[in-house]
Amino acid sequence: MNTQTHKQTDNKMKRKDLVGIGIGPFNLSIAALCHDIPELDVAFFDQKKDFCWHPGMMLPNTYLQTSFLKDLVTAVNPQSPFSFLSYLVSKKRFYAFLNNERPAISRHEYNDYLQWVSRQIEYLHFNQGIESVDFKDDHFEVALADSGEVVAANNLCLGTGKRPHIPQAVNHLHDQYSCFHAINMANLPRDFSGKRVTVIGGGQSGAEIFLHLLQGQDGMPAEINWISRRSNFLPMDETCFTNEWFSPNYIDSFFPLPSTTKHDIVGEQKLASDGISGTTLQAIYETLYEKQVAGENQHYRLCPNRDLIAAQKDKGYRLEAHNKFDGSHEEFRSDVIILATGFENVIPSYLESMKDRLQITQDQQFILNRDYSIEWDGPSQNKIYAVNAGRYSHGISEPQMSLMCWRSATIVNDLLGRDIFDLNDNCSFVEWGDSRPVSALEKRLTA
Length: 447
Ligand SMILES: Cc1cc2nc3c(=O)[nH]c(=O)nc-3n(C[C@H](O)[C@H](O)[C@H](O)COP(=O)(O)OP(=O)(O)OC[C@H]3O[C@@H](n4cnc5c(N)ncnc54)[C@H](O)[C@@H]3O)c2cc1C
Fold this sequence. Notes:
Elements lengths: L4 H9 L2 E6 L3 H10 L7 E4 L38 H7 L3 H7 L6 H12 L5 E2 L4 E7 L2 E6 L5 E9 L4 E2 L14 E3 L14 E5 L3 H11 L8 E5 L12 H4 L4 H7 L4 H10 L1 H5 L3 H16 L5 E5 L2 E8 L3 E7 L5 E6 L1 E4 L3 E2 L39 E3 L17 H13 L23 H7 L1
Parallel strand pairs: 1-2, 1-6, 2-3, 6-17, 8-15, 9-10, 9-15, 10-11
Antiparallel strand pairs: 4-5, 5-6, 7-16, 12-13, 13-14
Helix pairs in contact: 2-12, 6-11
Bound molecules: flavin-adenine dinucleotide (FAD).
The site of flavin-adenine dinucleotide has 30 residues, from α2.
InterPro entries: FAD/NAD-bd_sf, Lys/Orn_oxygenase
Pathway: Siderophore biosynthesis
Family: Belongs to the lysine N(6)-hydroxylase/L-ornithine N(5)-oxygenase family.
């Protein structure tokens, strides 16, 4: 719901236990868990006019890469009225959903679920961007962008996501209509008929956009290039032992490791989170095959192993790439460039006046404690939690939704100072570090 006047007055008068900045899925999960805890007075703010999950990437036939059971609440509070199953029942689609037997739900349906939750929580305030945050005496002051109102809070949770990454080689060309980041694609007027289109990026978004173009969903392009740095169009590893990296136990083992070790491990695990889902790869291959059978002479090039090194405007665009497979230098001509090049961390501008008080690494990562609060020089009872910020502290699951509600519950428990959510999920079959309790047998043998 949008903020109403009486709520603003409320905010002015009463200091909140927690103010959440940004309402993406991650802070929405925290908000949903707070719902049944009357002792917590919380408020969440977002600049968007209502909840919408990455609207610019809401292309048809795109699917969640995570089980619907890993929703906002279920893993820590299956009785919550905000579970995906409650949503299905309330929408009268429970049996149809089961009959549909899809391995993954569509992003449209997931967005609809998130919107359904967001409409039921009264302390979410949309159309309220945050301009700045300051710390005065014993509390934070959060300034809203348009109204000028200031909300006081004992604790904050930063949930404003990441910034689209624009590769350096095309930075000077980046514009709204012909060289743009994939995050905006669905928001743009699109007609690619007869155009040469180049997709850069070999992850899930790049694959979805390549398929979308190949199927001519926005007009049939004359030529499609798909360029990736990776050695091939590589699948996401969704097998069971890899999925153990997305478990609470793994975080317990990972968190205490030295920072350089963590960086190496996360680098090695890339395909567990950033690979392409098997169904998308299959759909691309099938589409290519059927085009071959039909004798269609559409031009497309699938080019892995290429590093984009330069780009200029030249009757459209001229892109230059280094082919790491055979060492050659190649050129691609294009009218449109779509950058499916991922996201990067930035320190949000609303933290400008507090930046010097926060512990931040050279590569612009917050230094996080185990409870997801940022290390800072202020009082320890005033915490600044950050979600989607701990890939190199808590592990590969951080930017993903797999452990979203477990992390939310960790934060809420910490906020309350007691374990309202039981987070002792000890079922893991892999010993990551030497964290075993010494068994009675070992004690006897070594005595
Ligand atoms: C297309 C796409 C598909 C994905 N699919 C999956 C998937 O299937 N499975 C999975 O595990 N992960 C997936 N992810 C990764 C991740 O789960 C999502 O990016 C997720 O949305 C991250 O949530 P968030 O809450 O951190 O940030 P976001 O969803 O980016 O939300 C941040 C919010 O902060 C708001 N905001 C920003 N600045 C301000 C400000 N100054 N004041 C107020 N509000 C502000 C924004 O308006 C926005 O609503 C996907 C990512 C993308 C891009």
